[in-house]
Amino acid sequence: MAERTSLAVRDLAVHFEMEQGTVRALEGVSFDLHAGRTLGIVGESGCGKSVTARSILRILDRPGRIVGGRILLDPGAPGETDLIAMNAESERMRGIRGGRIGLIFQEPMTALSVHYTVGNQIIEAVRQHSDLSKAAARDRAIELLREVGIPRPELRVEAYPFQLSGGLRQRVGIAMALAGDPDILIADEPTTALDVTTQAQVLDLLRRLQQEKGIALMLITHDMGVIAEMCDEVAVMYLGRVVEYAPVLELFTTPRHPYTRALLRAVPSILATPRQRLATIGGAVPHPGARPAGCAFHPRCADFMPGRCDVGAPPPLAPGHAGASCFLEVPA
Amino acid sequence: MNVLEVDDLKKHYPIHGGMLRREVGRVRAVDGVSFSIAAGETLALVGESGCGKTTVSRCILRALTPTSGAIRFDAGDGTVDLATMPKRAMRPLRRHIQMIFQDPYSSLNPRMMVGDIIAEPLKVNGVPAAERNARVLELLDLVQMPAVARTRFPHAFSGGQRQRIGIARALALNPRLVVADEPVSALDVSVQAQIINLLLDLQDRLKLSMLFVAHDLSVVRHVSDRVAVMYVGRIVEIAPTDELYRSPRHPYTETLLAAVPAPDPLRRGRQMKASGEVADPAKPPPGCAFHPRCPYVQDRCRTDRPELAEVAPGRWTSCHRAREIELAGVA
Question: Which Pfam families does the annotation name (chain A) (predicted)?
Fold first, then answer.
């Protein structure tokens, strides 16, 4: 991979201090984002995908706390910055948020206010990250709306979010994320709330924008179809760890972690035969506060090795290298 | 024999406007829907949000009163029309039509023990206590839950287990028809697979007749015998499941199928031919409601509304061009 590494996450650990005890939401997560490439983060609820996104942007809500690791912007470059070392409220972090790293939410209304027109909100975001005049920022807002495929943007700029359909709102959400001209985009389940034909259009849009602008895209989803459609590399997460990392084709053809294998077999398919049963994974994802000892997946694992998997945790993956964090990969 | 026959069902909502709040228009949420469900059959009702699929299911349950049309239901001792039945008269029929809900967190009373939740429909219908207990154990076994579950509260269970409890409650009275509204869409993939398999088992063992309302075309392919596709208040295609997926006969079905991302990177980049967004049911386009998005549109599509017609045995579609165009399915 010759692409520039835009962001490197290393050994990221996040805890939630709860009354019932400490919930270790992330336990040493590492990966890289490269310019012009899409990294998929896939996993079930509680795996830590959204916590990872919020940690990178330093918008983690209390009682969540980053307790270890580094989040390096422009790693290896002269201006390398560790986002964890920065004050989350500082002017500089605010500039990075939106200016370097844009965020697209599942529900675009999270990012939009009901009280202001779409245009005013984008103009505000544009001006926060540039010194354009109001009039120039307005032109830029219209240009952004056009870029994300909103018909008649010079009219829509005056619309309030509630006047738009779900698909158009998500396009506005994407325009908002692009307002500061970021080179890294984090999309957290960007199409989960959308209908399937709208989802296809929004995915097309994301792909086009990424290619045109050479953006490093981190796409968080629970949907293996979206992963297959969009990603270059994939990190599979389970209970706060990356359990497998692989180029997308490898992940689907030769999955190495038992969890990935089981997950792929459990996905309902548009190509199924009538009344086809699915392979299942026993049990359910445990609560992150009740993490099983050893490898957290061992109680549900088809390849569980007593005395090994329930004793120690398998070694974490070296960032950027395909593989599985599993004792099957480690000679006994 | 059919358990349910829906005939030209309509549910319209008036739009009021102006100074005198007069009716200025109508939202045609459901606008002339007809289908039937045979005994032991699962029919899926699919479509995107706002297509009217949930409104249809709520009319069948009589949570809504239809504007017009008939809903003929075989109650075992004769056929009744649910559409025109006074709400009071519905009461004795409710035991025959049961519902599985989408959200297993809000559909179970958190203050009731699981055993009582499952026994409630039995109690309401006068089943004696001793029989109730035996039946609860049988039902827990049927949905693969341990017997000890009955003395615990819903919060002790995961989403998938709660959905099993909801299914046990729905089956308590051996209903003649089960209406399942998005029963797996709130679940994680690994749990979703368990519930899909459970539904397949129950269909086989109990010969359930089921209306399966869903938006996820992958799930539908696994669990349904036939599929009805809805668009802006009307059914645009009905077909046996496998035929519908392999060779759709309505351009909207083709669009829907092409839009689903397949979990296979080698199939990447298939092109969805239709553009634009779902039409507003308050202002449906004239002619065929899909015509503004349809890649095969011709002049008559803009003015004449196509009726649902049988184009091959068991295959119904409402498209003027159904016999002349070749549509792509997913093998």
Answer: ABC_tran, oligo_HPY
